[in-house]
C-alpha cells in the first residue's frame, strides 16, 4: 500500500509543496527496502519527518549557538571553544565530526555532514551507502540532497540497521536510538508516529 500525497500531508503538514515531489520517490525507496504495511511505513515516515524538518531540510543545519554545541557534543566543545565557533557551521562540522566515522582529512567533517532524510554522516557511512546505492557519494556527497537519493539512502539505512524488525515489534524508541544515538526529539517523533498510525490505519 503506497502512501498518497494526501496521507503524507496529514502526517507532515509542513511538507507543503514538496510532498508531491517526495511521494513517488518515497514509495519507490520503501518498496525496495520492504518498508511495507502500516506499522513499518508509520515508523519510517515519523522518523524521516522528524530528521528532515518534515521533508524541508536535506542537509544538516549546523548554525548552532554555543549552548546547543555544549549540549549536543559535550565531549567535543568546552565553553571557550563553543563560544569561539558558535554560528560558524563549517568549523562546527569539522570539530564535531573530525577524526571519526572515517573523517581523517581536514575538512571531511563539513564535506560529510549529515545529508538525506535520515542524515547519513561521515565519510565511511557515505562510502557504505554509496556502495549499496551504486552512487559515488565519497566524491559527490551532495547527491544525497536530491529527493530520490535522500529517500533511498534513508530506506537503505533503515533496512541495513534492522529497523523493519523493530517497527514490526512497535519498538519505536529503540528505532530512535539507532537513528540518533539517543532520544533527541523523542516527543516530536512520537507525536508524528501516533499521527501516522492513525492516518495509515
UniProtKB/TrEMBL annotation:
This is Glycoside hydrolase family 19. It comes from Pseudomonas fragi. Residues 39-161 form the Glycoside hydrolase family 19 catalytic domain. GO terms for biological process: cell wall macromolecule catabolic process; chitin catabolic process. GO terms for molecular function: chitinase activity. Pfam families: Glyco_hydro_19 (PF00182). Keywords: Hydrolase.
Amino acid at each position: 500500500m503506497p502512501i498518497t500525497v494526501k496521507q503524507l500531508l496529514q502526517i507532515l503538514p509542513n511538507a507543503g509543496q514538496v510532498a508531491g515531489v517526495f511521494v513517488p520517490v518515497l514509495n519507490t525507496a520503501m518498496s525496495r527496502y520492504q518498508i511495507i504495511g502500516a506499522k513499518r511505513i508509520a515508523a519510517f515516515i515519523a522518523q524521516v519527518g522528524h530528521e528532515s524538518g518534515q521533508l524541508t531540510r536535506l542537509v544538516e543545519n549546523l548554525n548552532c549557538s554555543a549552548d546547543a554545541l555544549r549540549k549536543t557534543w559535550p565531549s567535543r566543545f568546552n565553553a571557550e571553544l563553543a563560544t569561539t565557533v558558535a554560528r560558524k557551521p563549517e568549523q562546527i562540522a569539522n570539530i564535531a565530526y573530525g577524526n571519526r566515522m572515517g573523517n581523517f582529512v581536514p575538512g571531511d567533517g563539513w564535506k560529510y555532514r549529515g545529508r538525506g532524510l535520515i542524515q547519513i554522516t561521515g565519510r565511511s557511512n557515505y562510502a557504505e551507502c554509496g556502495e549499496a546505492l551504486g552512487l559515488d557519494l565519497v566524491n559527490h556527497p551532495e547527491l544525497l540532497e536530491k529527493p530520490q537519493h535522500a529517500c533511498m539512502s534513508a530506506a537503505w539505512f533503515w533496512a541495513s540497521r534492522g529497523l523493519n524488525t523493530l517497527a514490526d515489534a512497535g519498538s519505536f524508541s529503540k528505532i530512535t536510538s539507532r537513528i540518533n544515538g539517543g532520544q533527541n526529539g523523542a516527543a516530536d517523533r512520537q507525536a508524528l508516529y501516533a499521527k501516522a498510525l492513525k492516518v495509515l490505519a
